[in-house]
Sequence to fold (463 residues):
Amino acid sequence: MELLMLVPFMLALLYPFMFLLIKLVHQWREQGTCYILHYECFKPSGDRKVDTEFCGNIILRNKNLGINEYKFLLRAIVSSGIGEETYAPRNVISGREESPTLLDGISEMEEFFYDTLDKLFHRTGVPPSEIDILVVNVSLFSPEPSLAARIINRYKMREDIKVFNISGMGCSASLISINIVQNIFKTYKKAFAVVVTSESISPNWYSGNDKSMILANCLFRCGGCSVLLTNNQSLCHRAMFRLRCLVRTHLGASDEAHESALQKEDNQGRPGFHLSKNLPKAATRAFFKNLRELAPKVLPLRELLRYFIVSQLRRAGTSSSGNKAVPTVNFKTGIDHFCLHTGGKAVIDGVGKSLGLTEYDLQPARMTLRRFGNTSASSLWYVLGYMEANKRLKKGNKVLMISFGSGFKCNSCVWEVMRDLEDGNVWEDCIANYPPKASVNPFMNKFGWVMDEKPETVTVPVD
Fold:
């Protein structure tokens, strides 16, 4: 009789997991197949590197800056986590950042396009004529004809190619592009797709003195990546990764989140990219909403069961003790590597703390920020390249990608490694130097003085 009384309780306990199992089976059937055959990250030429002295010179060139803004920028650079080998656009290198031309933006994009796509087609042996789908994402530059059309013209692609040229999607655009390909693959068999992801820095350098807008100049750098994908299962032996799941979260309905990161003009009519004080709050909210949907798709049943039981016990104990501590999910039970967007040192620290990650887990994102800076939507692929160059990626491993973007958005996906990977890729000539043996901030020696000075007492160095 006592056992019969326990039956309703047992069914109530098992029902959520039975529902979850049915949901996962349905999602697996709908997911389809999406493989990455190869990806190529862009490394600009050495004459475009930005060292400490040049950073100081760029700031001094801006005659609109007062002493407080000057100190603010130097403090941001010193604490940014960026090193001396990031890349700036050619018009900034030549001192023309305040008067960019249309050709500056087009040249920056074409230099990246042709370098990565030439290598991509050569390395895979897949000719441009076999590409069925092309997705190009560059948020802040949309010329006519489109950037995608320029690629099609250059490589003489087929007339029936499915083309998507998306803009305004910010740093999370890579995974949006992957999602577009994933959905098209459901209706096209044995297709090839190319995703081209970058950001245009040349025409978007801010030359004003609004602190909410000059910060972007400290973090964003030149870069990009081209990715070749297929749903042809006969090519799975050649594939590097297989897409397991992808989750997109958009908080655009919230005015606060929507306005936390946007392109606008300052009071003097100078265009730039505004980052508000509400950005961390919007990012945190989007992040946890995204993880809430992602967790059931990627974590083992034992971890979900543990979380459910602990949550129920905490909830039962809250009424008597008043303790409202929220149990956390251990994502490391289902994920081997974490590919985090290099939005800045604070972003990496915050995500790492929320997920309970170690310095080993965060090292790829930190080193990518140091070496290449924030290359917007392409940052994730440089982080992935670091893992590969360090021979971390082994067959069967799961890699979680997490990105944030204006809107406000948080997008994530999980890739399964299809074979042991150890290509040196874009990191080949410098991977031995990362992480640095001595944790030295290259900007601290030159600009460290500004960290302790008060705004009204700062004097601008002339040497």
